[in-house]
Amino acid sequence: MMEEKIIRPGVYAVKHKDESVRAVSRSGGIFTALSDLILESGGVIYGCVLSKDFEAIHVKADSVELRNLMRGSKYIQSELGDTYKSIKRDLDAGRDVFFSGTSCQVAGLRSFLSRDYENLICTDIVCHGAPSKKVWLQYLKWQEKRNGKKVVAVDFRDKENFGWRAHIETLIMDDGNKVSSEVFKNLFYGHTVLRPSCYECPYKDVMHPGDITIADYWGIEKAAPEFDDDKGVSLVLVNNDKGESLFEKCKGKMIWKATKIEDSMQPPLKAPFPNPKNRESFWNDFQKENFEIVARRYGGYGCINSVKKHVRGLIRRIAKIIKG
Fold first, then answer.
1. Which of 146, 126, 132 has its CA nearest to residue 196?
2. In the chain, what percentage of residues exceed pLDDT 90?
3. Cα 5 to chain center, whole Å?
């Protein structure tokens, strides 16, 4: 009897069964489900958190509380520090290690280790590109100056107030007020703020260096419309046997469905985004001009208030739910 050929990657739509987990996750909660298994076995998690200065850094977590800080999107390049060295020490000591990062970070880790470790699981994200930390920090300073208050917390994508599909950043100020904006999002999707290497990224493909690849499931309305509730769905690509084994173990925590890769082909799975023609002018303006000018020219600031548009859309969705 011929063995059935396993097709890679395996493609799945995933939602965590615990709605409270999905509510605090950026998409469907797959990161929590996978990393919970590692923590339950006494292993450690390496992932990205925001520092008190709102910089993205990779840290080690051996508790649920610290792991939970790794949830959510951070649309800036993270600082790895001595993460690779620390991972090697844990692996050599026999601990299970779960590393989450961009594809280039996973590839860098594998190159650093120079051999495969059975006790290492790598999960990479479908990455749009890594924006400049410098632009992000200037954006925060500009918002503090505009509002006369200090930023104390940030949400790069405010799913709670605007839904999963909307991409609106919300800043919490020290007086408790919230400031919602699409300026940084517009800079991000304009691609001028990405690292030069992102325009030549070799991982803008279906295949990735992680054992499992995760993302927002854009296109879920076609791939699995019954999952589409605007509360977040994860796209999961299972890339090898090790990834398959971990995914099988956490299926009991999830609502999942096998889907087709052709129904899941968002742009970062096809090719790198091209270097935009206005990139040079953006950086010239960023270096020389007040940030408000940059926000107006490249971030959509001062245009029709799209946040109000999203609020109106949210009100319409709520009205539909009330009507049944």
1. 132
2. 87
3. 31
